Automatic annotation (TrEMBL):
GO cellular component: cell envelope
Taxonomic source organism: SAR324 cluster bacterium
One protein family per Pfam: LysM
The protein, known as: Peptidoglycan DD-metalloendopeptidase family protein
Transmembrane domains' residue ranges: 7-27
Sorted UniProt keywords: Hydrolase, Membrane, Metal-binding, Metalloprotease, Protease, Transmembrane, Transmembrane helix, Zinc
Native organism taxonomy: Bacteria, Deltaproteobacteria, SAR324 cluster
Keyword ATP-binding: no
InterPro entries hit by this protein: Cell_wall_metabolism_enzyme, Csd3_N2, Dup_hybrid_motif, LysM, M23ase_b-sheet_dom
Residues in Csd3-like second N-terminal domain copies: 170-292
Superkingdom of source: Bacteria
Signal sequence, start to end: none
Amino acid sequence: MQIRRIFIQLCIGTLCLQTFLVIYLHFAPWETLNADLENWFEEKAFSEIESKIDTIERQNFTRPAEIKRKKKAKASIVHHTVKKGENLSTIWQKYAGNLDRFSEVKSAFQKAGLKALSLKTGEKVEVALKKKGNICRLKKTLDDGSVVVVKNTETNGYTAYSKSPKILQKQKVVTATIYDSFVRTANYASIPYEVVDELVDLFGHRIDFSKDLQAGDTLSVVYDEKKIRGKEKALSVVIQAASLKLGDKLLAIVRYNGRDGKSRYYDEKGKLLGDYFLRYPVKFTRISSVFSKARMHPILGVTTTHPGVDLAASTGTPVRSIADGFISFAGYSGGAGNMIEIKHGGNVKTIFMHLSKFAKGIKQGARVQRGQIVGAVGSTGLSTGPHLDYRLSINGKYVNPLNVQLPQIINNQDTIPPKLLQATLTTLMARHENMVLAQRELGLRKARV
């Protein structure tokens, strides 16, 4: 029924439309009808022409947004490890195949006001190659975190520039309980190794870190740390104050800038810490063990008196002079292997044996400064493994370098303001007292703030 009704309505509509057209054609003027027909044909023709033009344009024209950009060839990245004897020009020649455009690189450094890259063995240089022989970029990260880049631009050739990193500086305060060795305690308290080694150097002339510290003693340190954003390793650390509470005894060091602008450290009594001898010729955190004075010789098989100490460390670990002096001997010496003897004045002499190598410029007669690297740990001569045989002689007699009272040379009488010293000591002492309370509440191994 529904379909039938719709059909009838359509028929009636069609009949009405036909009737309207017949009436209109009978009564409308021919001029008006003709004009209407002409306008209709013109509009229809114009519309068709526009449609044709639009179709042609679409076929022959591509809008800018639709243009497919040609993909640039990706550069292959090579992380080159600098080998002994290599420099920037030899690395360039290795990857470019020649030195034809190397002069452009040197000129780019000059225009940018940068020094040409100095490379050390073992460092990394990033080389970007578009194709064999075409170096599009060289990049190297410097010790201070800045990045030097040499880039080939298609319009201006090679250009050089330097990017400075974002440096974050923060002062940190750490207080911890000694529960094991000093290094393990510091590691547990997240104190950087650089701070640990500096603490050992600053306190080393007064205590033996391998023997004098007992479980329950406390440590407090305030230090400034500089880091590159996003990097874990610190660029530098500077200790502002530190203290060790050994039983009832408080040992402290406080940093102060004198009238001459130089920074110096003072002890808890306000006494200037002068150019004291370093306790260890190897950074403390690099030592794996210390051997006794009397021992069974590992090769000769007999008990011998050992007039020094053996510091076990990996081959290549830097060895430094414990004070200013001059080299009285540097060379191979039988069972001692590669050996260095340094005279420091005041009848004080140090000897380093079994070295793997000597530092550049170390030879008989050369002057050295406190902390200067003179060689590296090795296993030359009569030795069964890498270690440093370290001997200290005072007034012609060998002494134990780990517990002897080390000499000091004070050349400056500048003093620290008493109020500053007292305020710092009061703050340090309060931290130790808080640490003791934390020990009681949390237990010995967990106590740290």
